[in-house]
Amino acid sequence: MDINFSNIKDSRVQIRLRKLQLSDAKSIYQNVKDKAIVRYTLQIPHPYYLSDARKFINYSIKAYREKTAYIFGIEHIDKKTIIGIVSVAKVDRKNKNCELGYWLGKKYWHQGIASNAVGMILDFAFNKLKMHRVYASAFASNTGSVRVLEKNGFLLEGVLFENYWRNRKWHNLFLYGILKDNYCK
Ligand SMILES: CC(C)(COP(=O)(O)OP(=O)(O)OC[C@H]1O[C@@H](n2cnc3c(N)ncnc32)[C@H](O)[C@@H]1OP(=O)(O)O)[C@@H](O)C(=O)NCCC(=O)NCCS
């Protein structure tokens, strides 16, 4: 299933969320090879190769089929290319919770796109998957990501102090969550 956006507030770029296909490998690779994307992410390798993008797409197709993770491409409607990813993974059916993740190609930052994409996948998680809780983590220094979560109603639940050693210093990790009852849509 695809999620369509027709009216995106505060954004000049019209986007929709859709499942990935192998022909998206090049767009994904072109965005993710930029070190700015992986600086604050935990799962994406660097350097990043076209073969990594293909592996990721194959994984997303398999996970979707197995209902363990729902990974959507953020498609630029006019250009028909994938400019980012938003996903819910670690889908726990018994406890009705899952983990949110996202990134966006650098040239599309600061246009409200990630905030809107997260809003749409929350709608999907709570109303289609019937989740009770969605959680996410962000480096404390990742101001943009923290803002995306807080704008979407996530609450800070805890801090893992000095949990990661990167670029010759320790980083705190913020843990965020949102409950269905606190999600107003
Ligand atoms: C984090 C990221 C997804 C934000 O995407 P984005 O589309 O630029 O975010 P938005 O435009 O929706 O911005 C949301 C808010 O954060 C603010 N913001 C975004 N980037 C920021 C930055 N680097 N520093 C400070 N504020 C920032 C925006 O001004 C906006 O605030 P406002 O609504 O009060 O004006 C994007 O920078 C990214 O992909 N980064 C690399 C990957 C990553 O960090 N993923 C998250 C891992 S937890």
Summary of the model, kept short:
By secondary structure, this protein is α+β, with helices and mostly antiparallel strands. It has one domain: Gcn5-related N-acetyltransferase (GNAT) (Aminopeptidase). The protein has helices spanning 25-32, 35-38, 50-66, 113-128, 143-151, and strands at residues 3-4, 15-19, 70-76, 81-92, 97-104, 133-139, 155-166, 169-179.
Overview of this structure, please?
- This protein is α+β, with helices and mostly antiparallel strands and 185 residues long.
- The protein has a single domain (3-134), classed as Gcn5-related N-acetyltransferase (GNAT) (Aminopeptidase), CATH 3.40.630.30.
- The protein is 29% helix and 35% strand.
- The protein has an 8-stranded mixed β-sheet with strand order 1-2-3-4-5-6-8-7, sandwiched between helices.
- Helix 1 (25-32) crosses helix 3 (50-66).
- The longest helix has 17 residues, at 50-66.
- The chain is globular and about 40 Å long.
- It starts with a strand and ends in a 6-residue tail after the last strand.
- The structure holds coenzyme A.
Helix and strand element order: EEHHHEEEHEHEE
Largest sheet: 8 strands, mixed
Annotated CATH topology: Aminopeptidase
How many strands? 8
Q: Structural class, judged by helices and strands?
A: alpha+beta
Q: In percent, how helical is the residue content?
A: 25-40%
